[in-house]
Design brief:
single chain; 249 residues; alpha/beta; eight-stranded mixed sheet; 8 helices; globular
Amino acid sequence: MAEPQRTTIDTDEIDRFSALAAEWWDPNGKFRPLHKFNPVRLACIRDQVAARFGRDPRAAQPFKGLRFLDIGCGGGLLCEPMARLGAEVVGADASETNIEVARLHAAAAKLKIDYRATTAEALADAGERFDVILNMEVVEHVADMPYYISRCAEMVKPSGIMFVATINRTLKALGLAIIGAEFVLRWLPRGTHQFNKLVRPSELEQALDAGGMRVVDRTGVIYNPLSDRWLRSRDMDVNYMMLAEKPAN
């Protein structure tokens, strides 16, 4: 009997996010936390990409000539700003529904984005390569995190970079990101995150290293209730981001 094909897809996770697809672009809807989170993510991406590729972050289109993949792109909340900054953007998501929402929104905004309903392994098998991969709030939803990271790492060009944002597996994260955000404040639908699928920084770094990537930056991200803003921080106990690069040939 043939062994089942290895996959990164968790169908329950895909179904959960597909059911919410119509709300991706509602800043006060189910994805309100992502809309609030976007400014700190965008600033980090802009500054790091500009520094790594020798671009002026104040330029109108500093990412012109760079090829980006936003894997697990959802409704396109990161794809559209990247396209406006001049990048050639591929947005990939395993949910057909999410991709349709993203395509419609990009068309209304007159933005050229290559949206595909596909998986990381399918893109890697097709030989796709990118200067920058955005892997934001995805690794805690896949079926096999090390395999998923390895397939994403395959697609990073030499001297290219990958951003990974996720949630740490700590009691503090259980209290704030799951019990607090989903059950008390109801920022997110219940069941959005499963504690056992959260990823410790050491686990993520090990997976990146196994994929031939070197972690060059890491930061925590915390919520300030007084300013109602997310900010970068040394505290990686809950939300955090890593930047990894692939060595030049």
